[in-house]
Amino acid sequence: MIRTDLFNLEAIPGRGKGLIATQTIPAGTCLISEKPLFTTAEIRSNDVERELVRIVKALPKDSQRAFLSLHNNHPGGKEPFSNIVRSNGYPLGASSEVGGIFPNIARINHSCWANCQQAWSSTRKQETAYAVRQIEAGEELTIAYTIGGPSQERKSRLKEFFGFDCRCEICSLPADKQKQSDEKYTRAAKLDDSIGSPKRVKTSPNLALADCHALLRLYNEERITDNRLQRLYYDAFQICVLHSDQARARVFAKRCAETRAVCEGNDSADVVEMLAYSEKPSSHDSFGGSTKWKQAADAVPKDLASDKFEEWLWRVSGGEKVVLIHTERN
Questions:
Q1: Is residue 301 assigned to a domain?
Q2: Rounded to whole angstroms, how far apart are CA atoms 249 and 255?
Q3: 188 is in which domain, residue-wise?
Q4: Using CB atoms within 10 A of its CB, is residue 261 exposed (0-12), middle (13-18) or buried (19+)?
Q5: Is a pLDDT exceeding 70 seen at residue 327?
Q6: Which of 327, 265, 319 has its CA nearest to residue 1?
Q7: pLDDT the model gives residue 329
Q8: Which segments constitute the SET domain (predicted)?
Q9: Confidence band of 162 (pLDDT split at 50, 70, 90)
Q10: Are residues 144 and 246 in the same domain?
Q11: Alpha-helical runs (H) found in 19-60
Q12: Do 191 and 158 belong to one domain?
């Protein structure tokens, strides 16, 4: 499924070809859902270049043309087919060692403030691209090839692995605003590392949850709406479920499902799984590792104003600023 009614393939000065929105596209819209032309699982020998030539020659002529028209980050090399795959391939899932070529999604260029998210759908067996925020007519569709860290770190990775100098909206900020943005991205990376510490989550859950809340504030300030948001909510869910707080766990599970659905669709297996946890948090493998925050699933408050609900959810004091993004209960 290719929503050609929503975008056109156009030449973009300094960026090769890209996809340009032809009308306003709401967040959560599926733009592309496509099967791979082929996957690396079809490679049968150690001579990868020869194998790729064989695979591509076996494709229909239009598919051959689609593959050969894709960008090569290392032109002029001795392995042109391999380099096209390295430049455009996506794994079939976050932990998969198998990659695939998706010629339409491969046309989506990079931005550090991307408006789309690509993901493998295990349900559809297709790679998908969704709008993660509203996209206006004339705006280029973009995804983030790399995330996290200050601008110079991102630029360095993009130059090394993809061969271009990033001039996106975030990397082209005036020096003073660039410094502010870099400080936030650096802080976000440190918070993410801290949240990922099993020892901290187990022994200091209040601090780990506070880190999640601080990270959410940074994401909100930097207008980040991609899959980093659902990951944050999943981390908060895990902290609460580990310590037997089913009430907060179910709220975070639902928020994780909602934000992930924007990036991957309602039929995403992970969305379905998180919705199930929002109904029964105790079914998660980590549930009950501690009873420090023990609380029943039906203990979610129903009569609090939005700001007070967020204070309850994040376990913050009344004077601390809370992030008001979601107001829906459990």
A1: yes
A2: 10
A3: 175-314
A4: buried
A5: no
A6: 265
A7: 39
A8: 1-146
A9: confident
A10: no
A11: 48-57
A12: no
